[in-house]
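Bug #2210: token dump truncated for GNAT family acetyltransferase?
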Amino acid sequence: MIELRPVEPADLDKFFEYQQDPDANHMAAFSAKDPSDRGVFDHHWQNILNDEEITVRTVTADGEVVGSVLAYPSEGYPELSFWTAKSHWGRGITTAAVEKFLAEYPARPIRARAVKDNLGSIKVLEKAGFKPVGESKGFANARAAVVTEEILELL
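Reproduced locally. Full output below:
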């Protein structure tokens, strides 16, 4: 069973652990310059948790913390972002979590971004009703290269 709940302090240890996976970092692309730097990670998450404009939830599957989903203000729109532990990819967990999050977060339009070769994330967003509205290029730390992101929107 997939559930969303407020982030608890112990969740951050799991989020940090999941951030260490090189494949997950490659797919996310826009990750920390040094994913193993716990100080930078903790600072980043404290900023998220202390920002009243950000809505963030821990994702659990059968009671186990498996990731997070959040919406934050970006370029005049709320933007959806999510991270699921690689060990839980391909099971429909992210799709269910995104759908649950969108049911409790009614602001529309809402946007999301995914690197064009991150077909799993793009598929999750399309299943939730997001449609492509543009592209953006940016430097991705995890790939040490400029990448193209698909920008998607849900009305």
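Output looks complete on our side. Residues 38-50 form the longest helix (13 residues). Marking as cannot-reproduce; reopen if the truncation happens again.
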